[in-house]
Amino acid sequence: MYEFEKYRAPSQANVVDLVRTHPFALIVSNGGGAEGAPTATHTPVIIERMPTDGGFVGAELLGHIARKNPQWEHLTTGDTVLLVFSGPHGYVSPTTYDDDPNVPTWDYAAVHLTARVTVWEGPAEGMHVVTRTVEELEKLESTPWDMTTSLPTFERIVGGIVAFGFDVIEQRTVFKLSQDKPREVRDKVVAAARERGCPHGAVADLVDRVGGSR
């Protein structure tokens, strides 16, 4: 992903927050597709460990896919994959601007992490990744679910997944949130998004909260 200098994340805290709150990621790997095209799988990817400096380079993330999904068969421990995390996004109409002529655009936030993958086929590693995933995702719920009584069920079906560890070697971000516009224009973008509704996540809140923090 190309990083536009003026659209970099305002802070690393914003990057970590996007990954934590939008964990349904794409795992993209080389080959496996038609005529050698890359393969991508949508799956939850969660943070296991962060470096002390708060950056993602050096972090460890966890994920899993169905064993029936052939993507994992094309992966060997040490291969590199791309993890794509998409945040809120939405169309911006020129009707929100004060000048004319103008052009429409799209506001969005995204984080791409390149990582070396470790493939875990065993049930012990699979259980660790599945239970850690549940723990992290339940933190997003107002009333977290206690998985204790369901662990025997997890153990019966964990053979149906293949788990991964991801050691991050590169981070790229784009937080394009109308920050190149004056405050009064950003306010109009926010108001228009809220009036229309944000079908792709709360982009209005992100523009309001993050778009002007430079």
TrEMBL record:
Stored Gene3D superfamilies: Electron Transport, Fmn-binding Protein, Chain A
InterPro entries, A to Z: Split_barrel_FMN-bd (IPR012349), TR_PAI2-type (IPR007396)
SUPFAM superfamilies reported for this sequence: FMN-binding split barrel
Full protein name: FMN-binding negative transcriptional regulator
Species in which this protein is naturally found: Microbacterium koreense
Taxonomic lineage: Bacteria, Bacillati, Actinomycetota, Actinomycetes, Micrococcales
